[in-house]
User: Which sequence fits this backbone?
């Protein structure tokens, strides 16, 4: 009997320490994600007071910006998974080798995506269905922020490398500084210098550049990641391993972002007021689920460490803890979103029609926030294990088979309103959460072949 009680006490102690490790890792990343989202909030809020056309000019290319960001974000996830696993294995040489390849990936991918984005900036607003009076400002806005893509890639990939070493505070401090710069420059350029949409773009670009440069400096100062500039050449083996993790993630992001592009294109045809309400509501909702991405990063790091250590028991505890904590947090966030939906919309726009319609959409989506949380944390578990193909399948099937397919029916075919569009979006989120959680709840199939040690031998 005493042995059973001692075992229960030990399990509770382990659970407490795992919760503490998760929270310590996640909280700085959560704050950083929120600050990153606030940068978009600031642009939307400050430009929103210039009128609906200015709001549309800033938001009409948002989905394309997400599409570009998904490329280097996928690389960051691959780097994080590899470094976290190598750290768990206590292989310092391998960690440094992966760190070296991260620089090569940033330079190549950041330069290519930046040049392509700038070249396509005159055409993207028209492709997105923006009205003619919006296209000019939207093109200028997208071109200016595209000038900072290399630095955004640096911030994303090097930040992921730092978090993989359990350093989540440094990226947070850098994000705080970048946000302060963005707010100050927004006020000076949008209002004082009367540059409007162009001023918002310049402010964002400058803050992204500062963010990328400082993240590179922090990355070079990290002792675990540091390597000397004696030789610098591609390591095909490591690049292939990174590609094995990153490409399905990129495919997932591409399927998602292209879906968002089509989704936004369908909504933009419903008129400037409706599109402004939709885009601002989407931005407003972000702050309430973005914290989940902080826990996703922390979960991926800890899962990767457990995989490197070949500790299945630790992995199971991480999984259970992260799912419960994220679900509970998102329940609270959903309630808060429902309560303050209208005041939040009023903060981001001075149009009563836009605020009222957007508030209705936020109250609808508030009930699906817990499912969104489950989807996010499940992705973190898969990413930490390096199993990213299934997430690609789920994202592609749900985005295109549920959201886009149903929206293509309710908008052009049945001429239904924005509320029906958001029901399609909610259905997509719930579908993803269910499909991603099934393997985790079933258990064994998820980590089969990953944890190869024998429990009896380990004892």
Assistant:
């Amino acid at each position: 009997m005493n042995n059973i009680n001692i075992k229960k006490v030990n399990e509770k102690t382990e659970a407490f320490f795992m919760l503490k490790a998760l929270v310590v890792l996640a909280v700085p990343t959560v704050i950083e994600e929120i600050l990153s989202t606030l940068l978009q909030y600031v642009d939307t809020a400050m430009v929103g007071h210039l009128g609906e056309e200015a709001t549309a000019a800033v938001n009409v290319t948002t989905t394309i910006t997400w599409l570009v960001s998904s490329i280097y974000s996928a690389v960051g996830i691959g780097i994080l998974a590899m470094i976290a696993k190598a750290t768990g294995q206590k292989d310092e040489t391998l960690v440094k080798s992966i760190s070296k390849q991260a620089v090569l990936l940033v330079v190549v991918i950041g330069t290519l995506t930046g040049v392509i984005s700038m070249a396509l900036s005159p055409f993207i607003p028209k492709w997105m269905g923006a009205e003619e009076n919006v296209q000019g400002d939207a093109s200028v806005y997208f071109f200016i922020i595209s000038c900072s893509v290399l630095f955004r890639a640096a911030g994303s990939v090097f930040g992921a490398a730092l978090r993989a070493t359990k350093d989540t505070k440094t990226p947070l401090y850098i994000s705080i500084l970048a946000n302060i710069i963005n707010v100050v420059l927004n006020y000076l350029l949008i209002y004082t210098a009367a540059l409007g949409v162009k001023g918002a773009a310049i402010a964002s670009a400058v803050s992204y550049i500062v963010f990328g440069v400082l993240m590179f400096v922090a990355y070079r100062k990290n002792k675990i990641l540091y390597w000397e500039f004696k030789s610098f050449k591609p390591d095909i083996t490591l690049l292939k391993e990174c590609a094995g993790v990153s490409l399905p993630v990129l495919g997932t992001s591409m399927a998602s972002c292209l879906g968002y592009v089509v989704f936004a294109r369908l909504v933009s045809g419903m008129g400037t007021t409706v599109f402004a309400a939709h885009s601002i509501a989407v931005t407003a909702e972000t702050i309430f689920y973005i914290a989940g991405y902080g826990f996703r990063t922390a979960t991926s790091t800890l899962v990767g460490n457990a995989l490197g250590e070949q500790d299945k028991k630790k992995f199971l505890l991480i999984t259970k803890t992260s799912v419960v904590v994220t679900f509970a947090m998102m329940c609270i966030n959903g309630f808060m979103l429902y309560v303050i939906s209208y005041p939040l919309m009023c903060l981001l726009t001075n149009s009563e029609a836009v605020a009222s319609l957007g508030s209705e959409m936020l109250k609808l989506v508030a009930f699906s926030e817990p499912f969104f949380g489950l989807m996010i944390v499940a992705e973190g578990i898969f990413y930490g294990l390096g199993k990213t193909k299934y997430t690609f399948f789920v994202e592609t099937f749900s985005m295109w088979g549920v959201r886009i397919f149903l929206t293509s029916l309710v908008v052009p075919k049945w001429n239904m309103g924005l509320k029906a569009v958001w029901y399609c979006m909610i259905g997509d989120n719930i579908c993803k959460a269910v499909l991603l959680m099934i393997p985790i709840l079933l258990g064994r199939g998820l980590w089969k072949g990953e944890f190869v040690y024998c429990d009896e031998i380990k004892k």
